[in-house]
Amino acid sequence: MSATREAILTEARRWIGTPYRHQGSLIDVGADCLGLVRGVWRAVLGPEPETPPPYTPDWAESRGADDLMDAARRWLIEIPVGEAGVGDVLLFRMGLGAPAKHVAIVSGEDAIIHAYWGRSVCETRLVPWWRRRIAAAFSFPELRADG
């Protein structure tokens, strides 16, 4: 199965309004930022390649390991941050030298779709506050530029 940018964006937008739920990954029921990406993967590519282990809200700080970045590198295709486009995935570090802890799907030149504490899945501007925290960019596997 191959993904298109249009299919990824359409699916991600279907999730808008899904309530924030830590470790959630069900459209209209609840999702966190990782759950959104997992749900889009399932809808566009099929079964997830791995199930994440249970994680606490402070998992990145408490472990010090870059588990989210490591998983992204296992299953997504890393690209230069400046080349990220619609349908690509951005990882964010919430502090200097901190592990990547947040993830979003690019929905436009300056827009992302993501979920974070206290907010449902939403589409927001990629403002300087978020832009400064980008740690890496990835494409879904088998992503085709057309469509």
In words, what does this structure look like?
- 27% of the residues lie in helices and 27% in strands.
- It starts with a strand and ends with a strand.
- It has one domain: endopeptidase domain like (from Nostoc punctiforme) (endopeptidase fold (from Nostoc punctiforme), Alpha-Beta Complex).
- By secondary structure, it is an alpha+beta fold.
CATH superfamily: endopeptidase domain like (from Nostoc punctiforme)
Question: What would you report as the Rg, rounded to the nearest angstrom?
Answer: 14 Å
Overall body shape: globular
Rounded average pLDDT: 91
Biggest sheet strand order reads 4-9-5-6-7-8
Q: Order of helices and strands, N to C?
A: EHEEHHHEEEEEHEE
Largest sheet report: 6 strands, antiparallel
* Distance between the amino and carboxyl termini: 14 Å
The helix count comes to 5
Number of strands: 10
What is the CATH domain class?
Alpha Beta
- CATH second-level architecture: Alpha-Beta Complex
What name is given to the CATH topology?
endopeptidase fold (from Nostoc punctiforme)
Short description:
It contains five helices and ten strands; from the N terminus they run E-H-E-E-H-H-H-E-E-E-E-E-H-E-E.
